[in-house]
Each structure stands twice: as structure tokens, then as C-alpha cells.
Amino acid sequence: MKFHYYDYLVEKIYRERCGCRRLSPRKENPLKSTFDTDLQVGERIRRLRKARSRSLKEVALRSGLSSSYLSQLERGLSSASIRALARLADALDIGIAELFSASDPPYPDSPTKVARLSDRKFLEFPTTGMTKELLTPFDKSPRLDIYILTIAVGGGTGESPFMHQGEEARYVLEGGVELTVDGQKVILGAGDSFRFSSNLPHGYRNAGTKPAKAVWINYRDK
Question: Are the C-beta atoms of 60 and 70 separated by less than 8 Å?
Fold first, then answer.
């Protein structure tokens, strides 16, 4: 089975939050072992860092992570959290997908990339009541990701806002969403849309009494 970074994210979310392993809902075989996955990710981080002629100390300063922790990651001795992976991607000026193995299934050399329904990837966040369904085909260096986001009643990103590179836009399909950007709150219903800079602190939650669903678009400018 070939390693895919979205499978790794699903596996990591479950290991961090419930101490168990999870199988992809569209795969019958188990994921690669956590140890092997950490080795692959660590090697990828080291190659990307060296390709940019950056020292451990420099990347540590740019990411806000310690040099010793980065060294452990590169040697496959530690597992990176989701937030740590996002910080590393920003520190290396890359998309988060580039932190993962380049051995993902390639698409034909064509100007059009197709994602079939049967191959669609899902990210489930059980403790926050959210599911992301990836609509865009995987790319080693994605600048654009489009999801269908479903937020259960009471679900959301939590009290602490977060930031990352790029820009995002959303179109609400069903239910209500409360969006907070840079301290400003707004309620959106079905048919409403919005956009904002991802560099601003932001968060969102279900604002209604039934599951909310929206098309979620994330774009990186580099």
C-alpha cells in the first residue's frame, strides 16, 4: 500500500486524541505502522530543510519549535502534532503536503486533475464534531484545497483561534455557522459566503440546532 499524507493525518488525529489506531473508511488494509510513518516524515523534513540550506536552529526559530525536538522528528524518534507540522510547513515556505513522502500515487501529465468519488479522502475530527471531505485531487505542492466541511451540533474549532498562511473562502450549504475572524463574530446561513486572510486569528462553530455543511476553500499564495 502506498503512503498518503491524508491517511497519516487521520491516523495522527486518532492517536493523539484517543490513543488508538484508525483504518481509513475507504481502505480494507491497515495503515503503515506509526514507526515507519514517523521515519518517512522525518526523512522528508530533513531533505526539505537541507535542500533550502537551513540549519536546525534556523528552522527552529522560524517555527517556534526547539532544535532538539526537530532533531528527534528528523530521526523518526518523535511524532509531530498537527500544529507542529503546520508550523514546519510555514517555516520551510511550503505546503503541508510537501512534508510527506513523494511516493503518493501520481496523476497523469495532464492540465486537468481528476478526483473520483470512490477515491475521495475524509478527515474526521471526533472530539470537535467535524468532518472534512477533500474535493481537490492530491498534489505534492498544493496551493488550493477545497473541502466539504460538516460540523455537528455543538462542534467547532474550540475557544482558541488559530492562524496559517494563505486565504480562505466558504459557502454555506446547510445550517448555520458562527465565524470569528480577528475577534469579530458573524453568523452565516445557507446561501451565505465569505472570505478572509488565513493569517488572521480565526475559528468557527456550528451556530444552529442541526448539522452545518459548507464548501471550504483554502489557498496558499506561495
Answer: yes
**In the prediction, which pLDDT does 158 show?**
84
Helix H or strand E encompassing 56: helix 56-63
What is the domain-level CATH number for residue 136?
2.60.120.10
- What SS3 state is found at 133? strand
Q: In which domain, by residue range, is 139 found? A: 117-219
Model confidence pTM above 0.70 = no
Please indicate, yes or no, if residue 37 is contained in any of the structural domains.
Answer: yes
Contact 151, 177 (CB under 8 A): yes
Find, among 88, 125, 1, 101, the residue nearest to 41 by Cα. Answer: 101
Q: How far apart are the first and last CA of the chain?
A: 31
Q: Of all helices (H) and strands (E), which one includes residue 67? A: helix 67-74
The parts of the chain modelled with pLDDT lower than 70 are 1-37, 81-83, 95-113, 115, 118-119, 123, 137-142, 222
* Distance, CA of 45 to CA of 33 (rounded, Å): 18
Report the alpha-carbon distance of residue 141 to residue 3 in Å, rounded: 16
